[in-house]
Batch of 2 targets.
Target 1
Amino acid sequence: MDEITTAVRDYIIREYLPEGDDRQITEKTPLISSGIVDSFSMVSLLRFLEKKYSIHIPDEAATPEAFDTVERIATLVQRFQKAEVGSV
Amino acid sequence: MSAPPSYEQLSANFSWSVAERQLGYRPGAPINIGWMCSDRICQLGMSRKLALLWEDYQGNQKRFTYDDLRTLSNTVAHFLTLQEILPGERVCLFMDRVPDLYIGFLGILKMGAVAQPLFSAFGDESLFVRLADAKTSAIITQKKHLYKVRKIRSQLPDLRHVVVVDADQASLQPDEIAFQMEKTPRIEFFAVYPTTAESPSVLHYTSGTTGLPKGAQHVHYSIVSQYLTAKWVLDLRPDDIYWCNADPGWVTGTSYGIIGPWANGVTQAVLDSGFNAGHWYEFIEKYRVTVWYSAPTAIRLLMKEGAEIVRKHDVSSLRHLASVGEPLNHEAVLWSEEVFGKPFHDTFWQTETGCIVITNFPGMPVKPGSMGKPFPGIIATVLDPKTYEPVDHPGVAGLIALRPGWPSQIRGYWNNQAGFQARFKNGWYLCGDRASIDPDGYFWFMGRDDDVINTGGHLVGPFEVESALLGCPAVAESAAVAKPDPINMEVVKAYVTLKRGFQASDDLELEIMNHIRKRLSPLAMPQEIEFVDALPKTRSGKIVRRVLRCKEFHEPVGDLSTIMDD
């Protein structure tokens, strides 16, 4: 879980946080409601997660609520990692 | 209490002079939107009335009365005058939905300059083309967006001033100015510039099929339409708490997120936050929102979150619901009736119309999925695409067309009158959309008539996306087209051929997506990239997007005789 949290947080800081924006991104920082990630950019974040963790997150699970913090994203990834394992 | 006038009663013998009288405007006299939305409301005895209830995603709150609007907009106007900004010059507002944006808008208009609001999520390239085209003199922004301005400033010789609303001077570069509106001594009296009906007011950029975005030039007289449509269509009443979801970077956010409600002296609530269903319902409950103007994409996202979350909140204050940006599907109308006890009323208009032109009028039976009927005083029809004559059979598709001449119609595209004139045929203004009209006179949207992509209610020009795609080292050629989407109606899809030496991969797809998101904006980012060996072209080498769009929509491609054989 910690590895996922760190990887997601680092990716968001690198790809989504504006240059010069010195906000600290913690596990609980709102991402969608703060505007750091919006419903359109969620798609590229989703692609990143699916690729990095070799999982498929269905549309109905990829809601703005589920993407609103690093913590929730990590939980989502973990849930679908288990689903992938279970389906083998 | 007597029933409000019906659509038919208001349509009979309609004249825009109704609005002129209510606004106290005499034809030929000065008219200034900034003054109309602040000083005039104070003169009507509403100085202490709340004009703006503001909250951000962290729960920080601010409240402004109409007298605050008046004095703070004076303060902005005075500051800009001191910077030697001249009437008619373009001043860009590049901010999130903070009070400085809303009040700054009025201040710019009060000193006679032209407000150029731009969506703060725009990347540096989107920002650059719009500032360069408008020869913008000043930009007012926040510290968080300053890095985009700094990247492009050296290429913008007309941009004399960069103003930052939330920074101290010590933290800025020498050629940047700190201006913290609320910390600056308020200006009680400011001599409002005597703009007249045809004086330029707002410059909104909108995307077309060809070329870069076009600056839609509005004038101060637009307030006549915006005031009356806000009153009649959004059904704004003196005691309302009104919430418009739109960002003032887009026309809905200025026509109905600033001008319409404040010209009516209504209290409006603004939530500076991204989408969060729970937070949105809390906001409605907390501020007792009565009129809510939203968008189909947001409504569909709310539907996705379910009805249970609505029941956890008291949203009984809601009296009237309306929607804009793209067609509102009938499922969304039925859902809102189920969970809110009332339907969302679809409204149709665009940047160029400046105000709602076709709508489901309050009190008129809502046909779920329909656009409604023309606003009183708006003559609308659908035209045969070959003859440009009105289609005289109900249910037959045609091009949506309006008879020119309503107050808020744009007066042209900035530096592009030829492009503006091309929008007219046979004395009709063509909206660029297709629809049919049923026997009861209701319009039914059918789709765009061009290659522009309507995603989440915002228009994205394929040319702009394709140009940015060519900035990716791997991309040889590209075509951006609309792809159907259950939430956003359409999203951007890119077809790409690669340069020699590059291989298609998931990594490359993500790299290209992120490139466009940062350079243009998240909504212009292709949600899917398909790598192909070749793009369909005419014999003269022009890429034919139509073929790719039809493929996405599973529609027949039609005549392919001009396409290259290979």
Target 2
Amino acid sequence: MNSTATEGMREITYREAAREALHEALTNDDRVFLMGEDVGRYGGSYAVSLGFLDEFGPDRIRDTPLSESAFVGAGIGAAIGGMRPIVEVMTVNFSLLAADQIINTAATYLHMSGGQFNVPLVIRMATGGGLQLAAQHSHSLENLYAHVPGLKVVVPGTVEDVRGMLLTALADPDPVLIFEHILLYNRKGVLPVQAGAVDIDQARVRREGTQVSLITYGGSLWKCLDAAEVLEQQGIDAEVLDLRTLRPLDDASIMATVTKTRRVVIVDEGWRSGGISAEITARIHEQAFYELDVPVQRVCTAEVPIPYAKQLEEAALPQVSDIVAAAQRVVNGHG
Amino acid sequence: MNEAPKPLPDNVDGEHALALFTEMVRVRRFEEKCAEMYSKGAIRGFLHLYIGEEAVGTGIMQSVAPQDAVVATYREHGHALLRGIPMNVVMAEMFGKQEGCCRGRGGSMHLFDKDTHFIGGNAIVGGGMPVAVGYALAASMRGQDAVAWCIFGEGAMAEGEFHESMNLAALWQLPVVFCCENNFYAMGTALERSESETRLVEKARSYKVTAEVVDGMDVLATEAAARRAAESTRTGNGPYFIEFQTYRFRAHSMFDAERYRCREEVHEHELHGPLRIFAARLQASGLLDDEKRAALEAEIAAEIDAAVAFAEAGTPEPVGELTRYVYSEAHV
């Protein structure tokens, strides 16, 4: 993907794309409102909703107290009451304070009520590391939510997805969690002028290749694409599969790339133990074991709380050089 | 009781008083039957009985309008029946049958009913409170005259979700009536062992919420308090808090050996139980006699027998349906 605007396309940042989606949703549907910490006067902790308070008013751009459980739960109640709330949680670490409402309530009500009460709620939150924000603002915990039936978990890595997935999530009758990687907000990409809703149930090949599959999502997508460039210079042809959605996982696309290249590296900013990479590895072994030439490799965050100091944080998070090294190992048959 | 029972005040309609009594007896007998069915193994899992607390739910429901929502706890059989969910489907749910209000997926602790906006049945203490606040927020944003009735035990007041929800409802002046059923024990932990401030209304008042405490064993008092709350809330005065002081006569659940309180304490409260005192007052007013009582009991017994028969004849939800309703079907 190149970032040069061509005809019918325009260049835009991830932040702007997220903002456009929110703007479009608020403009087109009176039931939609945005609620969360500092979404109004402050303009959003990552400045996504700057200016919305003036345009849409305090009823629809609601600053909340620091009460994650109450305002996420209020989103559930408002959704049941006929609204289409978008709840912003500042960072995935804070969402743990609302885990009761997300896991015990939003994910259970439809099933527990025998199909009577669906919860059309969208929760956005920032995730991931790389800004030296240390161990309570840098983790990638989306796999915890991907563990839970009843939720949908989407992880937009591109400007098109961050814009389109919000619209699709809002049209969904069930709770959808959107994870936006903090390093992506300033990243530019190109978007069709007529960009709109996109599917949230299929993975997408972002770069075609034949010798190794890099399976990834979110912030790590761009590291994998960079790694693929490096590998190309070394004569290794890598395919990059962007998962886009962690629940439900698109098994068919995963098995298709495995069958094509027969070598797999999974790149995930979550921890290795019990992470989404473990789940994907298991599924590959269940469904495509005999297609593999070498064992699956994983590049994950080191098993430490993410530290503050730059060199420590860099060492903890997956880096392009780690991905390149893992790809070389599997291509050379040393998986 | 040593004193002679007081007749009803003149301004209470006799027929209405009898109806209140009948509703309380209906809940009591239903739950006694549930306990029996539990002993027989027809009902399993947790079963939390409301016996002793019937005057609270009965009084509250008199002010719940059709457009209102009720968010309750895991001790909610009474609320479900009083809200108007048919007894058949409640009993069938307890039996885990397809004909149950939640097709056997919820059971005793998770009764739901969309038609009456009965939003559970929540077994996380405090977990329903933010949901009630959100429902009230939606009503307020949509300009609807709907109140969210949020029912919880005093144990929930130690949870962060109580404080967060109270603050949010007060800050945004939302139509929520917070109904605290104070039965003085959070499972086995007595109020004075779990709260530094046992005057619960003070907690609500600290959020600038109008609050009152009433005798939860007196159905006329609970009804009047709920009416005051409804009037205040519906006229845009924001949330309202009522502490209903009551008592649970039975164990917390069927697994509870009741090591935390003595039999004498329970007995003392039973003497002042809501059915007993109200029956005596109805008798003193000439509204109830042995014959009427027997007729009323027989009618309720017939309804309960029919509900048991309905539940027994119900269809077990097929295992093939296990994964239905994890996600909405229209969208799949």
